Each structure stands twice: as structure tokens, then as C-alpha cells.
Amino acid sequence: GNSVTQMEGPVTLSEEAFLTINCTYTATGYPSLFWYVQYPGEGLQLLLKATKADDKGSNKGFEATYRKETTSFHLEKGSVQVSDSAVYFCALSDRDGSARQLTFGSGTQLTVLP
Amino acid sequence: EAGVAQSPRYKIIEKRQSVAFWCNPISGHATLYWYQQILGQGPKLLIQFQNNGVVDDSQLPKDRFSAERLKGVDSTLKIQPAKLEDSAVYLCASSVNRDRNEQFFGPGTRLTVL
């Protein structure tokens, strides 16, 4: 079956530091890949996505590249801000029967200190 | 555009009691999802509806969980009777249809079972 593995947290960085959160996946077929962010007390928000190999998703300074050869979709940001403190989830979507289902990783808590 | 609405936001009950959660998806979205998010884990799909029909309920514990979407708009998820291990955040999400990747999430209902 499908699975997503994320680097374990929590991750604590100083403001303006470089961020990498690793994500690898196992899937049959050709999945789409996503990063969702969850701020305290809120639901998940889509941060970025990539639908095929070598695609780069980007949003709000975050980037991730779909690497089929390494089955990875690592999240990066060059300079984090305090407002980026949240939980980040890597996910994949693959067709399962007649439905597209999202499979999530366990999440990585990021705290950015001023 | 209004987002996915959920209520209540918080609920505390004792084990063996029953509880119900409500979700109103984004207007015009045909597909509705219920997820269970246990603390420290990623969301896990419980059930998926396409309009008022069930597409996938393979991971729904049907001995105690039930869900309906009678008119193809809002939905109710019920637990009866609740167990301690049901303590989690219950997230509702919707998408335009089941072939569209992007799911939009509500804020969730945090359930505590004592």
C-alpha cells in the first residue's frame, strides 16, 4: 500500500535559518505529492503540490521538487520566519479504486525562534 | 468563498456515551471526506462521499462509527458508544469532485473521551 515517511520532529530553528524537512514515499502508479501546513487550532491548508516527476511546487517561499528516482519530496525554505511555526505534513494522492485518497505522513513540528 | 465549516470545535464526553459531529463543505463541492487525526499522527481517512453516496468506508470502524450525507451537502459523523481511543481531532474536507486532487479542510472537532 501507499505510505509517506517524514523526518521526525520537533525542529527548532532561529529566524532566517534554512529549512529542510525530508519526505519519502512508497506508492504504486504515479502519485501526486503535497505539503500541507497546520497552524495551531486550525485545519490543514495546502502549501504546495507537484503532480508529476521533476515538477517543482512553490508557495510563500517554500519549495519542493518531485524526485521519482529517489521517491522524495523534501520541503525547503531559504529563510524561515517566526510565522512559519506550524506542523507540516507531507502527503500523496493516488487512485485507489474509484477514489483519490490522501495518505499523510506523521507530521513535523517546526518552531522558529526570534 | 466560505470554507469548510465544522461544529462543535471541542467536545468532551465519557466513554460509552455517544457524540455527533457536523460538517458543511464548500458550496458546490461534490466530494466530502472525514478524517481522524490522533495526536502526533497524520490524518487517516475514515469515509469518503461523492454527493450522497459512499465511495469508500473501508477504514471506518462500523461497529461504532456511522456517517451520512443525506442530501449531498452537509454531513454528520457519529460515534456510539465512544471509547478512550477515539480521542482525536476529526477533520472534514471537501473537493470539487473525486478526480480533483485538492482537498480543502475544516478546522476540525477535538474530541476528548474520559
Overall average pLDDT of chain A: 91
Largest sheet of chain A, if any? 6 strands, mixed
Number of strands of chain B: 11
- End-to-end separation of chain B in angstroms reads 37 Å
Series of secondary-structure elements of chain B, N-terminal to C-terminal: EEEEEEEEEEE
Count, helices of chain A: 0
Number of strands of chain A: 12
What multimeric state do the chains show? Answer: heterodimer
Q: Please mark out the parts of chain B with pLDDT under 50 across 5 or more consecutive residues, or reply none.
A: none
Structural class of chain B: mainly beta
* Shape field of chain B: globular
Q: What is the radius of gyration of chain A?
A: 14 Å
Given the helix and strand composition of chain A, which structural class is it? Answer: mainly beta
Account of the protein in words:
The complex is a heterodimer of chains A (114) and B (114). Chain A has strands spanning 3-6, 11-14, 19-21, 23-26, 32-38, 44-50, 56-59, 62-65, 75-77, 86-96, 99-104, 108-113. Chain A is mostly beta strands. The model of chain A has no long low-confidence stretch (mean pLDDT 91). Chain B is an all-beta fold. Helices cover 0% and strands 48% of the residues of chain B. Chain B has no helices and eleven strands. The N and C termini of chain B lie far apart (37 Å). The mean pLDDT of chain B is 93. The interface between A and B is medium-sized, with 26 and 25 residues.
Which properties best describe this structure?
heterodimer; A: 114 residues; mainly beta; 6-stranded mixed β-sheet; 12 strands; 0% helix; B: 114 residues; 7-stranded mixed β-sheet; 4-stranded antiparallel β-sheet; 11 strands; globular
